[in-house]
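User: You have something folded?
Assistant:
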Amino acid sequence: MNFWSHLHHPRAAMVLLRITLALLLLFHGWAKITHGIGGIEKMVTGHGLPSWLAYGVYLGEVVAPVLLLIGLWVVPAALIVVGNMIVALLLVHTGQFLSIGNSGGWALELQAFFIVTALVVALGYSKGK
């Protein structure tokens, strides 16, 4: 038996990716729960948008990750994460698209990780398989 064939577990890979995405995003959501979203509200209104849109961060960083964690409505939850991260890029990180961070990597590597991981979960998820 080929050793590498033992490592082929697409369903386990998807579960691991989905849970990792959910847990890492929940840290961001917990920060919003414990410290509030006043800064986000200022950014939103600074762009001429209504302040209530800032509450969408709870959807993208708390509700969607919890759904991903428990495996409920996985594809819509992953797409909400993608949307949430795109809004975060546009509101907070537009000046960093061509920047290198202090550690030498792309300044937006975490945001890129969240977007790409959420897209992979949305595109690759198949209930019951």
About this structure: The first helix runs from residue 10 to 35. The radius of gyration is 17 Å. The chain is about 65% helix and 0% strand. The chain has a mean pLDDT of 92.
